[in-house]
Amino acid sequence: MNKEIKSYNNQQTETDKEICDLLATTIGSELTEAESKIWHAHPVWFLDNNPTVGYSKQKNGIRLMFWSGADFNEENLNIKGQKFKDASTFYNNKIEIKTNDLIRWLKKSREIQWDYKNLVKRKGKLERLK
After folding, report:
1. Per-position DSSP letters for 62-126, written without gaps between them
2. Is the pTM higher than 0.85?
3. pLDDT tens, residue by residue, 89-115
4. Using one digit for the tens of pLDDT, what is the confidence trace for 17-40?
5. What CATH number was assigned to the domain covering residues 3-111?
6. I need a labelling partner for 55 at 20 to 30 A (CA). Which of 65, 80, 92, 130 fits?
């Protein structure tokens, strides 16, 4: 696990740290080709410099977000972005994470991607990569 991400996880409460550690470990083992770093103050994984998946501590719990998740057609990624193609879910306990779902979503994150890395260059217009 990236040491910046480990440090982020270690700053969470014990329950949130368990969630973050499981997410980071699973994402890292499934998206082995991804670059991971702290981006906008929370852990994010990038495929070809394009933000793909990340998590953050929010009022409702730990938010797992897929930048292109709205097109995954996944019932449990039910918090959709208003402006872009993101979709999220929240966790408040490690036992809420269904690893099989997470692995399926990570596979979809590789196959379904919108071009966020060029969003500014395209003046806010998203284009589908895959």
Report:
1. EEEEETTGGGS--TT--EE-SSSS-EEEEESSGGG--HHHHHHHHHHHHHS-B--TTTTTTTT--
2. yes
3. 999 999 999 999 999 999 999 999 867
4. 999 999 999 999 999 999 999 999
5. 3.90.1150.200
6. 130
